[in-house]
Design a protein that fits this description.
InterPro entries: RNA_pol_sigma-70_dom (IPR014284), RNA_pol_sigma70 (IPR000943), RNA_pol_sigma70_r2 (IPR007627), RNA_pol_sigma70_r3 (IPR007624), RNA_pol_sigma70_r4 (IPR007630), RNA_pol_sigma_r2 (IPR013325), RNA_pol_sigma_r3/r4-like (IPR013324), WH-like_DNA-bd_sf (IPR036388). The protein is mostly helical. It contains twelve helices and two strands; from the N terminus they run ααααααααββαααα.
Length: 259
Amino acid sequence: MPKLVVDDLRSETLQRLRDYQVSPSSEIRNQLVELNFGLVRKEAHHWIHQCAESYEDLLQVGCIGLIRAIERFDIAKGHAFSSFAIPYIRGEIQHYLRDKSPSVRIPRRWQALQRQAVWMVREFQAEQHRHPSDLEIAEALEIPLGEWQEIKLASQNRSLLSLDAPIGDENEGTASLGDLVPDSQYRSFQLAQEDQLRLQQALVQLELRTRQVIEFVFLYDLTQKETAERLGISAVTVSRQVKKGLSLLHNLMVVTEES
């Protein structure tokens, strides 16, 4: 796309976002979706070869993520809207695939590299007493960093999400999603319908900043650094908000269950 066209698109998007924040309407929102539909097409195209879902379904789901980004974007933060929106679009598609497609097709080469990575990580941890970074894993496998990150993401979406899967951060340690669910009988995801409802009810009770951090880190798979950049805060603040948010969610869900 020519640079002039891209600049015009960004300028028009920014103006529509200003209009939407002043006076939200479905008309302006739909205009923003149309202007930025290319972001959804790009993300849907990335996933179409890794799942059994149709391209049209992925487009529809991606648009839901785009709409959420439109509703939550803050012009005052100074971020580019495209960079802000992509995690929402990608996250919405990922969660749709987790719900609809327990088996995501992974190329054989990627499967082989994933197995190599498992052994490499074990050896690295035994020698260095820490987990290797993505860059270190990619270099050991002799592949580009971006390809390793795609392999890792595809592998994560291949399996059903487990309540025993660790969630957390490098600095503050980890918890498991099961820690957020008081009833221990649900040890295999998906969450039971009543647990999903309690989680949703608990999320909306969190203060805005804490809820945003939790959503970025756990729902949209951003790193703490990426989350900090999106929200214009420090990584330390993100880490504290993660710890605070998980604790509050657990307490809120317990209260909801007992009431």
